[in-house]
Amino acid sequence: MQMQYNNSKHTNTTTLAFCNLIKTIMMSSNNQRMRFPSSAIVLVVLMIMVSCSPDHHGVVVGAPLVPALFVFGDSLVDDGNNNFLSSIAKANYYPYGVDFDFGVPTGRFSNGKNFIDFIAKMMGVPYPPPFADPNAVGTKLLGGVNYASAAAGILDESGRHYGQRYSLSQQVLNFESTLNRLRTLMPPSNLTNYLAKSVAVLSIGSNDYINNYLMPSLYPSRSIYTPPQFANLLLNNYVQQLVALYSVGLRKFFVAGIGPLGCIPNQRASGQLPRGRCVNYVNQMLGTYNEGLKSVVNQLNKRPGFIVIDRGCCGVGRDLRQVTCLPFAIPCPNRNQYLFWDAFHPTEAANAILANRAFYGSPSDAYPFNIQTMILH
Predict the structure, then answer these.
(1) Name one Pfam family in it (predicted).
(2) Domains and CATH numbers, the chain
């Protein structure tokens, strides 16, 4: 896996860091530790070392590292959105929060701080307020917002038996609602820079398995899709939402994989295995998904730096989307930053990339082989 740390001054670079959010170290019946690829856990190991260091104590020192932190996900990173929804997936009662500030339950599914709280402290920004909180308005939005919702999944239907929740697609729409509010707080040029330097954390996908695919009595997905097909369905939907977030201005993304769900107490309690054993077939499904997610991250990091992907460089109508270029129309000056030339056709920059991938690309781009291979054989 190629992990990228971006410290460039250019704001049109996408940074996607992938790791497994939960590094589970459990002993199987033969006392052998579960093994994970070291590249998949390096960020988690580093974060645990930092957060447990006696020199830090969670204290923010110096200026914030980023303007804002935007959070998308499920109960692993929800900090209270479901408190405001008609849902049975809530954590706003004791003993949740027993070790949080003043021992007050906040809606976090933890005895204290969750993953995002520690990340926010390390970045030097305040805990992002829940989007659904009516008090999250005005300048309180400037440090970021948390859109995560317990029981939510990449697919809209995942977790529906819990009641209301913000699926990933709805969370993206909620972010766009926040953008409308932010536009009233700063001029467009400042907002563009603000979004490009902010960080988006996405931790979602567990409920698509434990509250969808692995519940055949409530959801038909398992009878429709094989595990690899279901993983591809999730990844395709995930990419759509990542691209949507990119198209409105975000440039730096941290995308978390799914931990070994076959080892969580919920799955161990199925009663189908000897005591202490993980449900291996569940972990194997997730291995397929996580490997696919790594590939997605690599592909997105290799994408050209097109800033404008939802409208043409020339054209008329709403967002310049409707027709081809009018005679003698003045085109946009930054044409290499546009994916589309008019409402239908790619720019020269996009055509160059398409041609390069057709001529030299891997089978994932040109199947079963590229043009160069066809000519030489």
Answers:
(1) Lipase_GDSL
(2) 15-302 (3.40.50), 308-376 (no CATH)
